[in-house]
Amino acid sequence: MYNVIDEPILVGAIFSSGKIAPRFFVWKRRRYKIVKVTYSWRSKIGSVPIFHFAVTSCGSVYEISYNLENSNWRLEKIYVE
Q1: Contact (CB, 8 A) for 50 and 65
Q2: Which of 42, 32, 38 is nearest to 65 (CA)?
Q3: Domain tally for the chain?
Q4: Which strands form 19-27's sheet, in the order they lie side by side?
Q5: d(Cα 30, Cα 28) in Å, to the nearest integer?
Q6: pTM summary value
Q7: Does residue 69 have a pLDDT over 90?
């Protein structure tokens, strides 16, 4: 089960050799260190590439996304048991 959040976030990430490696994100003034990227995938909104990441932090799984066209990050979902 998951909760849809769909809010903008700040992300610290490394962009290298055509890959994106998110390291932490800030949501509601709280910093979440990304322990592991468990899964990543791409989608498109029209012709705009969107990069998605399932990440673990503080014992929870979060889905974050990066819009390549406008360089915006979003917290899409929080997975709960």
Answers
A1: yes
A2: 42
A3: 1
A4: 30-33, 19-27, 2-16, 72-79, 60-67, 48-57, 36-45
A5: 6
A6: 0.94
A7: yes
